[in-house]
Amino acid sequence: MMKGGELLCVLLMAGFVVLLILVLNHLLPLLLNHGVAPGGNFGWPFFGETLRFLIPHASYTLGRFLEDHCARYGKVFKSHLFCTPTIVSCDQELNHFILQNEEKLFQCSYPRPIHGILGKSSMIVVVGDTHRKLRSLALTLLTTTKSRTGYLIDIDRIALEVIAAWNDKQRIFLCEEARKFTFRVIVKQVLGMSHGESQTERILEDFLTFMKGLISFPLYIPGTSYAKAVQARARISFTVKNILVMRQNGGDSSKKGDFLDELLSASNLSEEEKVSFVLDALLGGYETTSLLISMAVYFLGQCPSALEQLKSEHETIRANKKEECLTSEDYRKMEFTQHVINETLRCGNIVKFVHRKALKDVRYKDYLIPCGWKVLPVFSAAHLDSSLYKNPHEFDPWRWKVQNQTSSKRFTPFGGGPRLCPGSELAKVEAAFFLHYMVLNFRWKVDCEDIPMAYPYVEFQRQLPLQIIPTSSTY
Ligand code: HEM
Fold this sequence. Notes:
Elements: H1 4-32, H2 50-53, E1 57-58, H3 64-73, E2 76-81, E3 84-89, H4 92-100, E4 106-108, H5 112-118, H6 128-147, H7 150-164, E5 171-173, H8 174-191, H9 198-214, H10 225-248, H11 259-264, H12 271-302, H13 304-319, H14 328-333, H15 335-348, E6 356-358, E7 362-364, E8 367-369, E9 374-377, H16 379-383, H17 399-402, H18 424-441, E10 442-446, E11 452-454, E12 458-460, E13 465-470
Parallel strand pairs: 3-9
Antiparallel strand pairs: 1-11, 2-3, 4-6, 5-13, 6-9, 7-8, 10-13, 11-12
Bound molecules: protoporphyrin IX containing FE.
Protoporphyrin IX containing FE binds next to helix 6, helix 12 and helix 18.
């Protein structure tokens, strides 16, 4: 039994520990930086305001947390998120400044558990020279792939294959169908493999486990989604390694000169980096692009006149075609489709923010961003800002007709600066081709209410169920 004096001693020590945590967590950063960081609130010890920041909301809104904080503290404020003192920026100028000063003043800094899943050589987590080396290879490979004759034909055929399979169905889950499509495209583009090959199916199965783990609580205990994801990654690595070895030993001569061939000849990459590179491309090119497609269909459902105009654009393209497959010339004619895609990216906010940290004390206008703090440029804030877009909550593809805003600071669905998404063009082509076959061959109605929710990763909870009716068949 503990005596009164001992109990008091234990209580005092516990009190001291709590006090120490509070000081380290909240006051120390302030004291070290003389309290001149922007206004804001650190919230609870350790978790800070993370739980409030992560409260799910429709992805075409900013969410209560950011709305309240911006109203209270302005577009730039401090908080305590992901266990780190953080500057949140909802200001397009500061966002641009952060992205452009990658590696000089700021650096990509994703939470530790993400490293555990993606692996230490993933392009998304590496920095400095390793990032530059991998990125330059990514750009070379994407350019090589794009110049391949079969590039557009593959995307066209896969879109058709997925959509033609709807003919005997009355109801589909669009998110699943879009995922099927983007997965088949990226596996074809990167590994040169087609749907139905046993290795493709194995990768897909492991990939689904991997994706679940990416968005799970990062606890490595056997049986948890996180642990399963880390194991799934190891299995995918193993499969990819085998594919690389097979290709190195001769493989299929019809695939010479494709993405994988180029990757194998990159002598400055280790085996681990090559495998990681393939995983990055699969990961980057799969879920985001399928969401773009699902969201375009969702927003078109809210705007029948846009759907009509889109349909008419694709009917005209099809009417004037000689060959079956869509070509780069057809793609160039998809002007309104591009407006729909841009507006979907603006309203849908597939990537709401990215993770950075300050490499030194950074003074920007009136703010001090203290060295070592996390910095979150929130892209959706600019996309939904009424001073930048008239009626920002309205899905209005025609706004993109007036001026080309795609390269401006205010429109950053693919990030910016030295980490600008290398797959943006591929994603847009995929969405355009999928929409082409969908609008020409089907009418649809959303089966039950389902909206894109930001968790902050974006998801349709019901997978966007659609009732579909085939129209005149053009395939
Ligand atoms: C609608 C579809 C897509 C969206 C919204 C999107 C968005 C983004 C964003 C915002 C970043 C920057 C991350 C950061 O700065 O920390 C990024 C990077 C990246 N994306 Fe995409 N992406 C899409 C499609 C793709 C595709 C199709 C691929 C693969 C071919 C891809 C591969 C990558 C890679 C490898 C990076 C890392 C680049 C680097 O760190 O240098 N993405 N993407």
